[in-house]
């Protein structure tokens, strides 16, 4: 058995904020088991574990495997990496749908660049477009959303508040949205009870994201439209599959989404998206924020650019 663990650090094109954490680089681990790769990259602000904790658990799991025993990681990002590296991937998966675009930045700056953004899509506007909200002044965010709705009348908008509003703030915001053009709003409030109350009061369709990675209990609600599944944050692929099954049973859409992984991790999540939700554009438009890659265009991992943490061979 061949086992290896590498560490990467890839610069972002510009620093990005993740729940108060300003990151200039994306750091993570790549695990290789008998030539098959997995990625372990906890996202600061969103993952419960740190990279140092994930690294320590990954090394311990590799030592367990070297002894010929089964590794049972507990940390979500490590579960995801080890599951991917040992998975029997189905052959002949359909090509994933192109990801919907993710707009990031201050509404005023995005407004100034709106002509460029819209002109780029004149021939074929995207069916969906995602925008972060609950970050800047409400008036500015609403002005941008209303402009986008006017300029891209066939595009549905996905809004993501990352739990940033109180119930009252969310209701005030939703009352002024062009509701017909809103696909859904992810996590308006930190507490699920508040999110459900906002949906019930305003009629806005909602999607769960952080609620799922926190493994909180949730129940079906008529305004609940989609589950946003982030495998790196949820962890084990069987836990993700259970969510997909539950979504299908409740007639909810499944949107497979990234956690700003490297190009290798994004490729893994794209394969899961085509397996679990081939009918739904995935939330994978995060790769263009990274200035460097870990794989070649042919998909080979450039190990010479990575920091090797462990490499071992065992007869187990
Ligand atoms: O879901 C997508 O379309 C792309 C990924 C994305 O928006 C996010 C990934 C990770 C953390 C956040 O910044 C954000 C989200 O909360 O969904
Ligand atoms: Mg989200």
From TrEMBL:
Residues 114-205 form the Mandelate racemase/muconate lactonizing enzyme C-terminal domain. Pfam families: MenC_N, MR_MLE_C. Keywords: Lyase, Magnesium, Menaquinone biosynthesis, Metal-binding. InterPro entries: Enolase-like_C_sf (IPR036849), Enolase-like_N (IPR029017), Enolase_C-like (IPR029065), Mandel_Rmase/mucon_lact_enz_CS (IPR018110), Mandelate_racemase_C (IPR013342), OSB_synthase_MenC1 (IPR010196), OSBS_N (IPR041338). One of its GO terms (molecular function) is O-succinylbenzoate synthase activity. PROSITE patterns: MR_MLE_2. HAMAP family: MenC_1 (MF_00470). This is o-succinylbenzoate synthase. It comes from Vreelandella boliviensis LC1. The lineage of its organism: Bacteria, Pseudomonadati, Pseudomonadota, Gammaproteobacteria, Oceanospirillales. The gene is menC.
């Amino acid at each position: 058995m061949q086992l290896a663990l590498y560490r990467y650090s890839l610069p972002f094109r510009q620093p990005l904020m993740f729940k108060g954490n300003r990151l200039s680089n994306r750091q993570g681990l790549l695990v290789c088991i008998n030539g098959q790769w997995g990625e372990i990259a906890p996202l600061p602000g969103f993952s419960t574990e740190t990279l140092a904790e994930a690294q320590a658990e990954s090394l311990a799991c590799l030592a367990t495997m070297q002894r010929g025993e089964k590794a049972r990681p507990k940390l979500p990002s490590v579960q995801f990496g080890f599951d991917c590296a040992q998975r029997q991937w189905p052959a002949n998966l359909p090509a994933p749908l192109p990801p919907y675009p993710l707009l990031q930045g201050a509404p005023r700056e995005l407004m100034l660049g709106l002509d460029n953004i819209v002109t780029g899509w004149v021939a074929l506007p995207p069916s969906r477009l995602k925008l972060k909200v609950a970050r800047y002044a409400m008036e500015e965010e609403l002005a941008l959303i209303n402009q986008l709705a006017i300029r891209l009348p066939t595009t549905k908008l996905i809004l993501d508040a990352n739990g940033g509003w109180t119930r009252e703030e969310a209701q005030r915001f939703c009352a002024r949205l062009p509701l017909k053009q809103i696909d859904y709003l992810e996590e308006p409030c930190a507490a699920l009870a508040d999110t459900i109350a906002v949906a019930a009061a305003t009629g806005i369709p909602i999607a769960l994201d952080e609620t799922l990675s926190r493994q909180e209990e949730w129940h079906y609600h008529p305004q609940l439209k989609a589950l946003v599944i982030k495998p790196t944050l949820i962890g084990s692929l069987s836990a993700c599959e259970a969510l997909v099954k539950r979504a299908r049973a409740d007639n909810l859409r499944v949107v497979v989404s990234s956690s700003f992984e490297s190009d290798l991790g994004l490729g893994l999540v794209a394969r899961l998206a085509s397996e679990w939700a081939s009918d739904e554009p995935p939330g994978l438009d995060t790769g263009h924020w990274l200035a460097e890659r870990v794989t070649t265009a042919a998909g080979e991992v450039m190990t010479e650019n990575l920091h090797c943490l462990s490499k071992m061979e065992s007869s187990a």
